[in-house]
Amino acid sequence: MTWKTASSVPIEDRRGAVIWGLGLTQIIGYGTLYYSFSILAPDMARDLGWTREWVFGIFSAALLLGGLAAPSIGRRIDRHGAGSMMALGSLAAALSLVMCALAPSRLVFVAGMMAMEIASTFVLYNAAFAALVQATPRTAQRSITHLTLIAGFASTLFWPVTAELHKHLTWREVYLAFAVLHVAICLPIHVWLARTMGMERRNQAVGRSNAGAIVEGKLAPGDRRRVFALMALGFALQGLVLSSLLVHMVPLLTAVGLGTSAVLVGTLFGPSQVVSRFINMLAGHGLSQLALAVISAALLVVGLAALLLSAPRLYGAVAFAILFGLGSGLTSIVQGSLPLALFGSEGYGALMGRISAIRLIVSALAPFVFSMMMAHVGTWSALSVTIALGITAAAAFASIGWKPQSPELVSAT
Questions:
Q1: CA–CA gap between residue 388 and residue 390 (Å, rounded)
Q2: Torsion angle defined by CA atoms of residues 402, 405, 407 and 412, in that order, rounded to the nearest 10 degrees
Q3: How far apart are CA 344 and CA 218, in angstroms?
Q4: Which has the closest alpha carbon to 397: 243, 238, 265?
Q5: Cα(318)–Cα(346) distance, rounded to whole angstroms?
Q6: What band does 239 get if pLDDT is binned at 50, 70 and 90?
Q7: Who has the most CB within 10 Å: 19, 20, 38, 250?
Q8: Residue 327 reports pLDDT greater than 80
Q9: Rounded Cα distance, 74 and 55, in Å
Q10: Phi-psi category of 81—alpha, beta or left, where left has phi over 0 and alpha has psi -120 to 50?
């Protein structure tokens, strides 16, 4: 097939290739830029002469900076296209990993961590969701579900892979290997996506494609501010809970008495994410995105409660990993699909940037604070606080549909 012939194929007909390509880059992105950190952090602390809490503090500060940059990046995604921004982000991610790996001092390491979290805003879910909305907005909700189904393997793969690599390599060498993945795999996929989306825009300009038709939101103009505030609060608190637990998953399970079983139990989290997304894909067509958001928050709470009430028993930890994974899996879907259902596809990148900023700014301190709480007030108190936050998130989502004159919100899909 020649390039000219390939370029004439509508992007809707290549939706599967787009989803699988983005799924692979999300697995690598989350695995290298997020999930691997908790495995490598203790060695980073020893190497740099810091306490473990301070290393997590640097990670939290980097998350905060990424959150502050998210609105601006979201506007650029709308203006220049998600594919182009993700290609730029792949280069930035690789360079930031190399910068951390070769850092001769604490200051350079901190700068590398800050650059890494800004780069992650260009390449992780928000950008990938925007790419799907820009490419085929009419099927974007289904595409988001499919994408999160694939990307749910990130933790399952990268927690054990990182742990195994770290048996033979230093944390610096592991980061260098991860940088190669971004250049060798993620960059070519994102460049292909940018070219594909560019061709589609040219096809739309000459009337050969209508894949980019705008999807309207479900909100009346007077409801937009109230609904955005409640939605942002729900996502922010969910982000805080998830950020606290995911970064500390293996150390937390070790702290509650799981010992060497902690890594094995933690690997159940990823498949549980996939299961919840698969169930939603098969049986969730009649379920509103708003109801899905409430269910996702409730599952996080039930999972945490199971761990709190049963640890150090193995069955309780297994129940926690499964339930928490189910909730996290649905959370990833609704973070992309609920804003689309309520607000529509116009300006979606900027909207996701605003939501991401609020969520990341609120949750940026979570890994550091949770680490300090575990160290100074105990694991059980830390878990109790996260349960209360999860309950508040579920209440915020439920409140979106409580306005009597807006019953259409309850059926928004």
A1: 5
A2: -90
A3: 7
A4: 238
A5: 42
A6: confident
A7: 19
A8: yes
A9: 28
A10: left
- As to burial, measured by CB atoms within 10 angstroms (0-12 exposed, 13-18 middle, 19+ buried), residue 53 is middle
Largest CA distance in the chain: 64
Q: How far is CA 57 from CA 245, 356, 364, in A?
A: 15, 20, 9
φ, ψ of residue 285 in degrees (nearest 5): -65, -30
Residue 359: both structure tokens together: 């969520």
Q: What is the pLDDT of residues 185-229, one digit of tens each?
A: 999 999 999 988 877 666 554 445 455 455 555 666 677 888 899
State the pLDDT at residue 59.
Answer: 87
Residue 7 contacts by C-beta under 8 Å, 6 or more apart in sequence?
199
Backbone angles phi, psi at 22, to 5 degrees: -65, -35
101 vs 165: CA distance, rounded Å: 15
CA distances 316 to 258, 276, 302, 306, Å, are 10, 19, 11, 6
CB atoms within 10 A of CB 281: 15
Residue from 110, 81, 269, 283 nearest 193 by CA: 81
Contacts of 206 (CB under 8 A, 6+ apart): none
Percentage helix, strand, coil for the chain under 3-state DSSP, each rounded to 5: 85, 0, 15
Residue 407 has pLDDT above 60, yes or no: no
In single-letter form, the type of residue at position 328 comes to S
pLDDT one-digit tens code per residue, 74-86: 999 999 899 999 9
* pTM for the structure as a whole: 0.79
Please report the DSSP string for 253-311 in residue order: HIIIIIGGGHHHHHTTHHHHHHHHHHHHHHH-TTS-HHHHHHHHHHHHHHHHHHHHHHT
